[in-house]
């Protein structure tokens, strides 16, 4: 059965617009389940003569669990380790990022004093040698860097597509291909992000971390690959059928139907591998894999049901004709 993508394009586009806008709203207003490296944290280093690191680690962890604010835990996690080759112990404490800045500052300072007291109770020679206090600016830096990187990547991909699809059919500018790539890539990244954030609210093990950001960049590669396959088929059919007075919607429908089996088989193969990894591999990369699963599904959908209809919407009132490339004539004289 042949799909009539262009005839039924409006429901597909409406679904995408609703999902995209809903995703934007939810991303900005939902609480993000941040990994400890993305939250507010402190790192202190202490010199000592003799300490049992394992005992210290346990004591600090127990003390952290006792720190409450309105009957809720304040500290997400703690870690203590010895600096190799030196009598220095480093203690990292991750705090709940939803606490008011002033109150959080008081809690950090209080726990800093308690930590020193615990260490000095085991070794009176312990002294604090350094203290690092990471505030919201660190997460903002990671977030802003990720956004800028995504935007730059999308722009470079769009420029590449504009160059690749230049000189196809007159009145259909390669800029339209590039513009659609920008729209669909933003569409894929935003919706995949929201699906992951939604999942993280039900399954706390899925957290926002550097793997999440890496997965978003990987989605760009896969999504554009699928879109270019379909666009390339459209370009080939435009060159073959534009002179035969075939309508643009007929050419696009024909191209999508010729490419859809390859797109679906490729996506299903990738999904099978990703789902296997999700359940079989370490939990540390489960977030990355889940984002990739969402990105693969959404990227396949947008390549078929969003990119192609948008190409038609932009160019539906334009007359198709092949660009005649001027043949090279070696007898042409060059005037200097």
**Largest sheet geometry:** 4 strands, antiparallel
The proportion of strand residues reads 5-15%
Could you state the order of secondary-structure elements as H and E?
HEHEEEEHEHEHHHHE
Global outline: elongated
Quantity of strands, as a count: 8
CATH class category name of the largest domain: Mainly Alpha
**Model regions low in confidence, pLDDT < 50 over at least 5 residues:** none
State the strand order across the main sheet: 4-5-1-6
The whole-angstrom Rg is 28 Å
Structural class by sheet pairing and helices? alpha+beta
The third-level CATH topology of the largest domain is Multidrug efflux transporter AcrB transmembrane fold
Mean pLDDT: 84
Could you describe the 3D structure shown?
By secondary structure, the protein is an alpha+beta fold. It folds into 2 domains: 9-30 and 165-322, Multidrug efflux transporter AcrB transmembrane domain (Multidrug efflux transporter AcrB transmembrane fold, Up-down Bundle), CATH 1.20.1640; 39-135, Alpha-Beta Plaits (2-Layer Sandwich), CATH 3.30.70. 62% of the residues lie in helices and 12% in strands. The protein contains 8 helices and 8 strands. The longest helix has 33 residues, at 248-280. The chain is elongated. The mean pLDDT is 84.
């Amino acid at each position: 059965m042949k799909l009539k993508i262009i005839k039924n394009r409006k429901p597909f586009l409406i679904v995408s617009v609703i999902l995209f806008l809903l995703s934007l709203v939810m991303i900005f207003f939902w609480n993000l389940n941040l990994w400890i490296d993305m939250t507010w944290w402190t790192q202190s280093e202490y010199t000592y003569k003799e300490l049992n690191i394992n005992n210290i680690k346990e004591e600090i962890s127990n003390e952290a669990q006792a720190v409450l604010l309105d009957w809720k835990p304040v500290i997400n996690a703690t870690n203590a380790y010895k600096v190799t080759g030196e009598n220095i112990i480093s203690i990292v404490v991750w705090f709940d990022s939803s606490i008011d800045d002033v109150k959080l500052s008081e809690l950090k300072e209080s726990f800093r004093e308690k930590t020193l007291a615990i260490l000095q109770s085991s070794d009176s020679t312990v002294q604090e040698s350094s203290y690092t206090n990471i505030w919201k600016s660190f997460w903002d830096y990671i977030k802003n860097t990720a956004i800028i990187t995504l935007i730059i990547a999308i722009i470079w991909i769009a420029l590449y597509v504009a160059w690749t699809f230049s000189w196809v059919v007159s009145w259909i500018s390669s800029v339209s291909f590039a513009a659609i790539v920008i729209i669909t890539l933003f569409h894929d990244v935003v919706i995949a992000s929201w699906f992951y954030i939604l999942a993280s609210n039900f399954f706390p093990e899925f957290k926002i971390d550097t793997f999440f950001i890496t997965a978003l960049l990987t989605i760009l590669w896969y999504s554009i690959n699928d879109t270019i396959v379909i666009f390339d088929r459209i370009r080939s059919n435009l060159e073959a059928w534009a002179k035969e007075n075939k309508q643009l919607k007929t050419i696009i429908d024909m191209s999508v139907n010729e490419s859809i089996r390859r797109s679906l088989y490729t996506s299903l193969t990738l999904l099978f591998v990703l789902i296997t990894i999700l359940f079989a591999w370490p939990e540390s990369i489960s977030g990355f894999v889940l984002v990739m699963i969402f990105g693969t599904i959404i990227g396949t959908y947008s390549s078929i049901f969003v990119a192609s209809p948008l190409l038609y919407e932009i160019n539906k009132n334009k007359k198709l004709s092949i660009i005649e490339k001027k043949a090279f004539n070696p007898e042409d004289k060059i005037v200097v």
